[in-house]
């Protein structure tokens, strides 16, 4: 056997592993195929698809630009308000939870318990929270704010914890040598480090919450979602069009704004 | 004046870091402490401003018995001693001037401490300190945009703003390239000569130590094995400080 | 702009040097934030008083979910499997479609600027629509049922994986691509042998990560009639049968946990 042939045989043999994984994936795929059926797609469906497209091209301009409480503009501002206030509530709640869950400053059992709590909060879907909060505040945007606040906690505190666990503690050493007290070290050594990181994470979550807030209307928790579903159910396609256009533009705008703000925070 | 009288330091794990140290440093001296890693250089320096407690003996700084100080007294005592670290230890997400202003924080009234609003007088003092180390133009730049050498100068300015009598430096140039190292060392020398501030420095680079310091203290296994003027240091002295094979120690080769 | 309205303050050092101190933006930022918050409170009817007096209702409902109704489990299976099927199929087809889309949106593979821009815009527009809205539209086109959910998940996966993939392709070192073109390969072949191996691990791990999220999304799509377990959540919440809702959430939590554990295992291997 030449050395070349030996090398050929020595090439890593994980074929069996790759094949097994591929087979499992294929089986999953075949099994999932049974979920699809296009028997309900008929002329009607195609017609509706066409109508939606038509509605987007010919939106209800009156609905889009007027300033009544039913106008798209008002509803979008309300949606933004829900997302903003919800993010604020979520951030305020997340800060203490994040400190409780940070394993480098809290005893292990407390950090572990807090993490469990956060996982449980994350498990319940936003719409379920929405319906539960409607029992608290009645239907309307207030329920939306509370829902967004609670569902933001999971991600916000996780990312806050990451920031806390990466704190640079050497700064504190030099502040000790200056003669600072513990309070002064927290105020001038820790908070400046965390502040911009926390802010950047929070802005990112606000961006995500825009999407969340726009669907909460489906359960009656305020925002643009409810008018959208009404318009669709009553086949008013040019209203659907104007709502979709407004929503897409707003979300893109906020995404762009949030990216810009965050890169400014990171680079100073 | 700093005075060590039979000072011993034993760590909790039983390591005997300092053994019977006797030392006198006059105001305005430039002292370099050299020795292998783990010889006790860092411990020696950190005892002076009570970052470490001594186990026995007496340590006087300007006639104050350091080991007798408590709580608030320690913090007041540290206000007169500046300290510089290998890793700069700045808040990199804050601007240069804000990092320097931190050195005034302990003297502020409570509301200023909370809000972080500083007086114009303090801002001017901070700017002056920055001017002394030549980075006045960077005052409003965020620290993470500066080079290593510039960051170490910010740290220097921060200690200068304290208006200290003594400047302790723990490996101040260990994370800097040779050219920047020289610049920072020049700053130390200027500060030492024009402001009569004592400089006590731990340093790995023997060549640089010999070039800048007036006095060399060699530490080996927690004991002072050499103490004298820089020009008295011979190859034998170095062999004694670093063990027999000083020529093969990497930092010497680096310094050459 | 800001500096024009609030000109920097002059600081004169004792030695005569002058430094310009820019005015702090903090007061203005705080003021804006406070105004936006006040406006938002006004627009949403937020009230701490209502919150504190009525928050008990929330915990009452939560309390009713515990213990969950175990006997409901057999009726759950069908819907849970539907949800899984939707997310598996949607993620797979979406990820496969993402490949050509990402290619066509990468400026270093496609030379035609117009094509690149069109595909980039398409991907970002797709990503903008919340999945639930896509699902809602899909129910009108494809009828009520899992197919609509599948389409929504597919589109989301396409946009998410597609965006991350083209960003990655654009960051690949082009040296090996050029080398392969220089030995006579077509651009497609060069892509297959130079870029594809580089981005494959990240592509697979992004797909897996997206799949994890999709299972969560798929669970609520039933709310707009797009099939799966969301339908049951909707029904039981409507009947206020909270122990059943508790059971659904528990089973969902376990499913998501299992899937995330498996997926994380493979993602770690890929990195």
UniProtKB/TrEMBL annotation, chain A:
An example Pfam family from this entry, by short name, is BPD_transp_1
Q: Which InterPro entries match?
A: MetI-like, MetI-like_sf, PhnE/PtxC
Spell out the GO cellular component terms annotated for this protein, sorted alphabetically and separated by semicolons.
cell envelope; plasma membrane
- Locations listed in the record: Cell envelope; Cell membrane; Membrane
How this chain sits in the membrane, per its record, is: Multi-pass membrane protein
**Gene Ontology molecular function, alphabetical:** ABC-type phosphonate transporter activity
Q: Which domain of life is it from?
A: Bacteria
**So where does this one cross the membrane?**
17-38, 72-100, 112-134, 140-161, 213-231, 237-257
List the CDD domains. TM_PBP2
Write the record's keywords in alphabetical order, separated by commas. Membrane, Transmembrane, Transmembrane helix, Transport
Q: Where is the ABC transmembrane type-1 domain?
A: 76-258
The family this protein is said to belong to: Belongs to the binding-protein-dependent transport system permease family.
Query: Can you say what this protein is called?
Result: Phosphonate ABC transporter, inner membrane subunit
UniProtKB/TrEMBL annotation, chain B:
Q: Does the keyword tRNA processing apply?
A: no
Source species, domain of life: Bacteria
Where does the ABC transporter domain lie?
A: 2-246
SUPFAM superfamilies linked to this entry: P-loop containing nucleoside triphosphate hydrolases (SSF52540)
Answer yes or no on keyword Nucleotide-binding: yes
Q: Name one GO cellular component term.
A: membrane
Q: Give GO MF terms, alphabetically.
A: ABC-type phosphonate transporter activity; ATP binding; ATP hydrolysis activity
- Which keywords label this protein? ATP-binding, Cell membrane, Membrane, Nucleotide-binding, Phosphonate transport, Translocase, Transport
PANTHER family linked to this entry: AMINO ACID IMPORT ATP-BINDING PROTEIN (PTHR43166), PHOSPHONATES IMPORT ATP-BINDING PROTEIN PHNC (PTHR43166:SF6)
Q: What is this protein called?
A: Phosphonate ABC transporter, ATPase subunit
TrEMBL record, chain C:
Give the keywords, sorted. Answer: Cell membrane, Membrane, Transmembrane, Transmembrane helix, Transport
Give the PROSITE patterns listed for this entry. Answer: ABC_TM1
What the entry lists under Gene3D superfamilies is as follows: MetI-like (1.10.3720.10)
| Top-rank taxon, per record | Bacteria
Q: Tell me the membrane topology, using the record's own terms.
A: Multi-pass membrane protein
Q: Indicate where this protein resides in the cell.
A: Cell membrane
InterPro entries, sorted: MetI-like, MetI-like_sf, PhnE/PtxC
Record-linked SUPFAM superfamilies: MetI-like
Residue ranges crossing the lipid bilayer per the database entry = 88-110, 122-142, 148-166, 215-233, 245-263
| Segments forming domain ABC transmembrane type-1 | 80-263
> Its family?
Belongs to the binding-protein-dependent transport system permease family.
Q: Which protein are we looking at?
A: Phosphonate transport system permease protein
């Amino acid at each position: 056997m030449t050395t070349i042939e030996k090398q050929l045989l020595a090439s890593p043999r994980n074929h069996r592993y790759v094949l097994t994984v591929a087979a499992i994936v294929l089986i999953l795929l075949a099994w999932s195929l049974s979920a699809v059926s296009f028997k309900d797609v008929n002329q009607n469906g195609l017609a509706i698809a066409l109508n939606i497209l038509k509605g987007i091209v010919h939106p209800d301009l009156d609905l889009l630009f007027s300033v009544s409480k039913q106008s798209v503009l008002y509803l979008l501002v309300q949606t933004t308000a829900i997302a903003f206030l919800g993010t604020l509530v979520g951030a305020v709640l997340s800060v203490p939870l994040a400190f409780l869950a940070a394993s480098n400053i809290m005893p292990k059992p407390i950090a572990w318990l807090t993490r469990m709590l956060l996982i449980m909060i994350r498990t319940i879907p936003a719409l379920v929270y929405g319906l539960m909060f409607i029992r608290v505040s009645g239907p309307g945007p207030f329920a939306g704010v509370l829902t967004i606040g609670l569902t933001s906690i999971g991600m916000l505190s996780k990312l806050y914890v990451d920031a806390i666990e990466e704190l640079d503690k050497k700064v504190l050493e030099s502040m000790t040598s200056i003669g600072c007290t513990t309070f002064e070290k927290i105020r001038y050594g820790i908070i400046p480090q965390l502040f911009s990181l926390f802010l950047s994470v929070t802005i990112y979550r606000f961006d995500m919450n825009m999407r969340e807030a726009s669907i909460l209307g489906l359960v009656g928790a305020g925002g643009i979602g409810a008018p959208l579903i009404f318009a669709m159910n009553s086949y008013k396609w040019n209203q659907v069009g104007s709502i979709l256009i407004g929503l897409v533009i707003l979300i893109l705008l906020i995404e762009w704004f949030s990216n810009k703000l965050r890169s400014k925070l990171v680079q100073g | 004046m700093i005075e060590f009288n039979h000072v011993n330091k034993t760590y909790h794990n039983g390591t005997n870091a300092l053994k019977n140290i006797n030392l006198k440093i006059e105001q305005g001296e430039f002292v370099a402490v050299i020795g292998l890693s783990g010889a006790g250089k860092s411990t020696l320096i950190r005892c002076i401003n009570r970052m470490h407690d001594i186990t026995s003996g007496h340590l006087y700084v300007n006639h104050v018995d350091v080991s007798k100080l408590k709580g608030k007294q320690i913090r007041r005592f540290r206000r007169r001693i500046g300290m510089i670290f290998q890793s700069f230890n700045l808040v990199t997400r804050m601007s240069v001037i804000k990092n320097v202003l931190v050195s005034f924080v302990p003297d502020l009234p409570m509301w200023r401490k909370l809000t972080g609003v500083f007086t114009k007088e303090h801002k001017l003092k901070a700017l002056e300190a920055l001017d002394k180390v030549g980075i006045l133009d960077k005052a409003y730049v965020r620290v993470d945009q500066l080079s290593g050498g510039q960051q170490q100068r910010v740290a220097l300015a921060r200690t200068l703003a304290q208006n200290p009598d003594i400047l302790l430096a723990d490996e101040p140039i260990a994370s800097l390239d040779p050219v920047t190292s020289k610049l920072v060392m020049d700053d130390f020398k200027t500060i030492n000569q024009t402001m009569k501030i004592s400089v006590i420095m731990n340093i790995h680079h023997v060549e640089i130590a010999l070039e800048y310091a007036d006095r060399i203290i060699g530490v080996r296994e927690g004991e002072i094995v050499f103490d004298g003027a820089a020009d008295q240091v011979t190859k034998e002295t170095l062999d004694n400080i670093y063990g027999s094979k000083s020529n093969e120690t990497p930092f010497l080769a680096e310094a050459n | 702009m800001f500096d024009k309205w609030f000109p920097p303050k002059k600081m004169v050092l004792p030695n005569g040097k002058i430094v310009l101190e820019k005015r702090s933006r903090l007061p203005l930022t705080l003021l804006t934030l406070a105004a936006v918050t006040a406006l938002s409170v006004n627009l949403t009817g937020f009230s701490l008083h209502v919150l504190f007096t009525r928050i008990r209702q929330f915990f009452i409902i939560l309390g009713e979910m515990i213990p969950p109704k175990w006997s409901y489990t057999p009726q759950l299976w069908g819907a849970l499997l539907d949800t899984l099927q939707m997310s598996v199929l949607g993620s797979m087809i979406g990820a496969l479609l993402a490949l050509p889309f990402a290619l066509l949106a990468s400026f270093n593979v496609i030379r035609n600027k117009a094509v690149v821009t069109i595909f980039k815009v398409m991907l970002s527009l797709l990503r903008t629509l919340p999945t639930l809205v896509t699902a809602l539209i899909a129910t009108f086109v494809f009828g009520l049922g899992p197919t609509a959910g599948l389409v929504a998940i597919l589109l989301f996966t396409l946009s998410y994986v597609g965006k991350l993939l083209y960003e990655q392709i654009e960051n690949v070192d082009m040296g090996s691509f050029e080398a392969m073109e220089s030995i006579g390969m077509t651009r497609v072949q060069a892509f297959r042998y130079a870029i594809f191996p580089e981005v494959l691990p990240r592509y697979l791990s992004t797909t897996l990560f997206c799949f994890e999220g999709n299972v969560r999304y798929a669970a609520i799509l039933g709310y707009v009639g797009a099939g799966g377990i969301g339908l049951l959540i909707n029904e039981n919440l409507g009947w206020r049968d909270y122990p059943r809702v508790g059971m659904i959430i528990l089973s969902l939590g376990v499913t998501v946990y299992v899937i995330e554990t498996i997926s994380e295992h493979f993602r770690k291997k890929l990195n």
